[in-house]
Amino acid sequence: MDWRDDAAVGSALTLDALTIQANMPAISNSSAKLRRANRVVHAMDLSDVGTNMERLMAWLSVPFPKAWLGPLSLYLSGFQRKLFHPSFSPSSGETAMEAHLDAQENYGARQKTMNCWIPCDLPPVANLAEWRLLANPSREAEQPIVSRVTLSHPEEIEKEEWNTFWSVFNLAQFGEVESRNLVPSAALPMRMAADISAPEWDVSEVKEMYPEYAERIDRLHQEGQLQSEEDEKLLEHWLSDGGDVLAEADFIDRLEGVYFGARTEASSQFLQSQGLTPGQG
Q1: Which range of residues forms the domain containing residue 10?
Q2: Which helix (H) or strand (E) holds 74?
Q3: pLDDT tens-digit profile of 209-227?
Q4: Does the first or last residue of the chain, that is N or C, have fewer Cβ atoms within 10 Å of its Cβ?
């Protein structure tokens, strides 16, 4: 609970700092790629949860820890400006936690695996705490989350910072939390998303996320229909002029007018109403 949740039970809740950061274009794109690559059906999708209170209700709705830690590690791993940059070998947890590894390391991308440690870029609360949190979204992970927290004791606390602290800590506490001084290091600065420039979009990374549609992706790219992250989102979503999602599928090829794996019957009907046909395979 936090001040906002306590005051807003039973009413419309404002998105918290965690969700606001998750909705930043680069982080949202990384998160979407990670969920596609995972292809695992969990009991919940925390990317659909917008407030601290809603996360609490989601946690109470499933058996702990098995049904919770999977979607939680997947959600936290998505807090990166560029997926798997950086990421580290699953055997390097302690070293990565101490920030003694090369910030340019991209183990997950090089090895084409989700079994890796991903440092999570979470909203800061410098006056209250510093945290370092690593998540491993793979089903092979023996320990999905590790986290360390350094608590401060300010004389005064800003309400919004307090709310942000609990939004993050309520998730970080499911790892191994230690209250101790973090080891400073220039090798792996835990920078916030606002301090990092957006990486250049690369069609090869799109093909890695959709290997079964690589030839279609090449054609879309060559015809100018796939040139950016915004175009990439349209591979799974049909949007209204206002940006609302009207239909979803595993892959939508507007060039050839076919779609694969409509998420719902309503999505299938809508796509067909736009002249698309269901693909085979």
Answers
A1: 3-192
A2: helix 66-77
A3: 788 899 999 999 999 999 9
A4: C
